[in-house]
């Protein structure tokens, strides 16, 4: 039995907003400023007699010169090791070198867990068609178990992520 889901991604893609939305509570601080989440934040979702533990991780960085960044990377990496499912959060409009680095970190041990790509901030995207080429490209980079366009802010498709998480138990 596992029941643990890690929310990972580069800074500012909306990981903490997603955790809060999944739990229906403000357990993690969200901010326009990157690096607001500095520690692992856990939240437990209980439904009936089953529980899912969600772990909000600090954003992973390429820049490891500062000690705080190294610490944050380590916290995020060790979160990934223990879980049965990873929700990899990206911004629907931009793919950066930091996203690429996070994706590469997810490759190690990927056979032992599910990896869901959550393409966030779709409320921001007026031209939904523009999303498709982007998603196809991402799907070629990694064998995601599922790809879900979401809005952590407005809640679009967050229920879908919750049911995937509950199925992964
Ligand atoms: P984190 O660093 O990945 O934890 O990102 P946060 O959850 O702190 O969010 C970073 C910024 O993105 C904040 O200003 C959020 O309000 C904003 N944000 C998060 N999710 C969404 C979303 O679905 N749509 C929009 N438009 N903004 C979002
Ligand atoms: Mg955060």
Q: What can be said about this structure in brief?
A:
The protein has 169 residues and is α/β, with parallel strands linked by helices. It has five helices and six strands, in the order βαββαβαβαβα. The site of magnesium ion has 5 residues, from helix 1.
- Largest sheet at a glance? 6 strands, mixed
Our Rg estimate from Cα atoms comes to 15 Å
The residue-averaged pLDDT reads 85
Low-confidence stretches: none
In whole angstroms, the N-to-C terminal distance is: 7 Å
Number-wise, the strands total 6
Helical fraction equals 25-40%
Bound molecules: guanosine-5'-diphosphate, magnesium ion
> What is the molecular shape?
globular
Computed structural class: alpha/beta
**Physical arrangement of strands within the biggest beta sheet:** 2-3-1-4-5-6
> In percent, how much strand structure appears in the residues?
15-25%
Output the helix-strand order.
EHEEHEHEHEH
In DSSP terms (H or I, runs of 4 or more residues), the helix count works out at 5
